[in-house]
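Hallway conversation turned thread

IA: we were arguing at lunch whether anyone had actually written out Diaminopimelate epimerase end to end. Turns out nobody had. So, for the record, here is the sequence (275 residues) and right after it the structure tokens. Reply here if something looks off.
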Amino acid sequence: MINFTKMHGLGNDFVVIDAIGQDINLTAEQVHFIADRHFGVGCDQLLLVERPVRENADFKYRIFNADGGEVAQCGNGARCFARFVREKKLTAKDEVTVDTNAGQLLLRFIDGGLITVNMGVPKHAPEQIPLLMKDEAVQYSLEYDGGIVSFSALSMGNPHAVIQVEDVVSAPLETVGPWLEKHPVFSERVNVGFMQVVNRQRIKLRVYERGAAETLACGSGACAAVVAGIEQGLLDSNVSVGLPGGDLLIEWAGRGQPVFMSGPAVSVYEGQIRI
Ligand SMILES: N[C@H](CCC[C@H](N)C(=O)O)C(=O)O
């Protein structure tokens, strides 16, 4: 039996497992089973909380998409990880440093039960798009269904494509999402965000996530969309991102600077799963 906590960040939901106090070694198939909403517990991603790798870190955490694939970054997951280690009394710190496969994150508890994550510095021509590599251009275009799909491509530690649309409600997420997610120009697939610019301090966003399909919120996707919008001169440095599951605050001071994301994290229930 494995003990877990079911959590969410604005409806992007997680199975969070303490792999320090439990001896856990999950295959991709087992992650896929746990994530299944009919045969398992059900979640967008599964998070494993482990001992740190580097001396200056408090923990390591690993992220697995519902399809079983391990990935390196998850914004909503980072906030839920922070809430988890505090609620499980694995730390009493107000600021937690965590190792991830994308590097180190700094997580801070702020007023109102919110958590701010330093998501690191965005990379503008992520290595996952060698075929499209231009001179640090951040806008790319591909032919699709007799037309052209233009997008910004960048990495927040995981790859993102950001498409600007007039209205997120009518965005072609169900068709363009899976098409671009698996497009061969992205050697490791990609998360696909559909961004509607409301004004210079507000966007609306829907994300078709790599390995999980559409989620109610995507933290790294919100960061990528704001970076893309600022790069195109459409947004100021502090932006409220309206996702189907709720709002995140994203702050970015420009190239070479880290992106900060602030938002909630909620524990829903504790459980055990037979694996
Ligand atoms: N699907 C993402 C991982 C989860 C990201 C998302 N849930 C977030 O909050 O950033 C990927 O394959 O890179």
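OS: looked through it. The pocket of 2,6-diaminopimelic acid is lined by residues 12, 44-45, 63, 65, 71, 74-77, 158, 191, 209-212, 215, 218-221 (CB under 6 Å).
IA: good, adding that to the notes. The longest strand covers residues 147-155.
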